[in-house]
Write a structure and sequence with these properties.
Keywords: Cell membrane, Membrane, Transmembrane, Transmembrane helix, Transport
Strand content: under 5%
Family: Belongs to the major facilitator superfamily. Bcr/CmlA family.
Membrane topology: Multi-pass membrane protein
CATH architecture of the largest domain: Up-down Bundle
Subcellular location: Cell membrane
CATH class of the largest domain: Mainly Alpha
Largest sheet: 2 strands, antiparallel
Main location: membrane
Radius of gyration: 21 Å
Helix content: over 70%
CATH topology of the largest domain: Growth Hormone, Chain: A
Length: about 425
């Protein structure tokens, strides 16, 4: 049964959408997109990087692994801390450090320095990812919240497509070091933009006053909430399937189906377009339909696509057309699920928006870091490993949704509705029901 919970309303007299919303969302989206850029841009330069620094392939790969670890750990610390200290200072500090550490990576004299700098760069980049979600939660309420999260997810979806192309362009005229110089320039631009366009979204009167221990305790309390954990795991397993696709699709289409690089680029772009279209559809439907219903449909679509892929492998075997169609279906479901889980988790954790965003973001990247290498571990000479890993991950997402989140109960929906109500005189809180 639903249980009573404290809800924080917008400050009386303050309109959440006041000011220039478009530029703010764009900046927050770019902050979220920096990490995918930093992950994918330098991948085309791996061979040259290893030669320059006299490093093995595994050592070069470690530079990416440590960056992902930095993102996970950075979000777990920065998110809860921001609930006590506010968002703006941490955003400025994070983007500023990203700029400096990108230059350190560019000048790295050996692989050990690069690996260490990449870990710290991941920690700094985590500030943009986790605090962008927290700022949106602070500023927007009710049906506007899923719409703006859908826009953030859309920008995040474009980043992995643009990153390898941008990296290849830089490498065509310079070395792998220039990629990190470009990242430093992007970091400097983001720092300046945050200073100009992102005001503090968490007033001092709404911050937690129990010290750092209290802010981290809030994270523990969120993890005791069944629905929150359900949405958290649903989003994490969906991300695991997505990372598996990203890491394994090039082997499947280029090596197994013997497609050209141009054809694979078309496949990748088409699948990304399916994600973006589903993301856009979610933003429109979220004003007329329950978010839990949309999430359940999204997960069901993704699972159906993965199940169809398994059925095709068992019957007619692996074909390029069949694999492509199934991936479009899976990624369409994923494109709708990410803003849904993001909105519902942030709605349930509105009183601790930084901690909620930290748990969700770190969970997705941790699942991705586990899922992505599995394709190579189990073999990249067949479609089966990628298909099976994605199916297992998506089935786990469905189980988490059904057994923990229990979408028919509508957890998170009531908090979205209640956050539109005016606060009682002399109070910044309203009472309501939460899942």
């Amino acid at each position: 049964m639903p249980r009573p919970a404290r809800l924080t309303a917008p400050s009386p007299g303050v309109r959440p959408e006041s000011g220039r919303v478009g530029p703010l969302i764009l900046v927050l989206g770019l902050l979220t997109a920096f990490s995918p850029l930093a992950i994918d841009m330098y991948i085309p330069g791996f061979p040259e990087l290893g030669t320059t620094l006299h490093a093995s392939d595994s050592a070069v790969q470690l530079s990416m692994t440590t960056f992902l670890a930095g993102i996970v750990l950075g979000q777990l610390f920065i998110g809860p801390i921001s609930d006590s200290l506010g968002r703006r200072r941490l955003l400025l500090g994070g983007t500023g450090l990203v700029t400096v550490l990108s230059l350190v990576c560019a000048a790295a004299p050996n692989i050990e320095t690069l690996v260490a700098a990449r870990f710290l760069q991941g920690v700094a980049a985590a500030a943009g990812m986790v605090l962008a979600r927290a700022v949106v939660t602070d500023r927007f309420h009710g049906p506007d919240l899923p719409r703006y999260f859908a826009l953030l997810a859309m920008i995040l979806g474009v980043a992995p497509i643009v990153a390898p192309l941008l990296g290849s362009l830089v490498l065509s005229v310079s070395s792998w070091r220039a990629v990190f110089v470009v990242l430093a320039v992007i970091g400097a631009a983001l720092t300046a933009t945050v200073a100009l366009a992102v005001p503090e979204s968490l007033p001092a009167k709404r911050r937690h006053t129990g010290g750092l221990g209290g802010t981290f305790a809030a994270m523990g309390r969120l993890l005791t909430r069944r629905a929150f954990v359900g949405y958290l795991l649903t989003g994490a397993f969906m991300a695991g399937a997505l990372f598996t696709y990203i890491s394994g699709s090039s082997f499947v289409f280029v090596r197994i189906f013997d497609t050209s690089t141009a054809t694979y680029s078309l496949v990748f772009a088409t699948n990304a377009a399916a994600m973006l279209a589903a993301n856009t559809l979610f933003g429109r439907l979220s004003r007329r339909h329950r978010l839990n219903t949309l999430l359940a449909v999204a997960v069901a679509v993704a699972v159906a696509g993965a199940a169809l892929q398994g059925l095709l492998l068992l019957t007619v075997g692996a074909t390029m057309a069949g694999t492509w169609v199934c991936l479009i279906i899976i990624l369409a479901g994923a494109g709708m699920s990410f803003p849904a889980t993001m909105t519902l988790n942030q709605s349930l954790g509105r009183d601790n928006a930084g901690a909620a965003a930290a748990l969700q973001g770190s969970g997705q990247f941790a699942a991705g870091a586990i899922g992505a290498p599995l394709v190579g571990v189990f073999g990249s000479t067949s479609v089966t490993p990628m298909a099976v890993i994605m199916l297992v991950s998506l089935v786990c997402a469905a189980l988490a949704l059904l057994t923990l989140a229990r979408p028919w109960l509508g957890a998170g929906e009531l908090r979205l509705a209640a956050s539109q109500l005016p606060a009682p005189a002399g109070s910044g809180q309203i009472a309501g029901q939460a899942g």
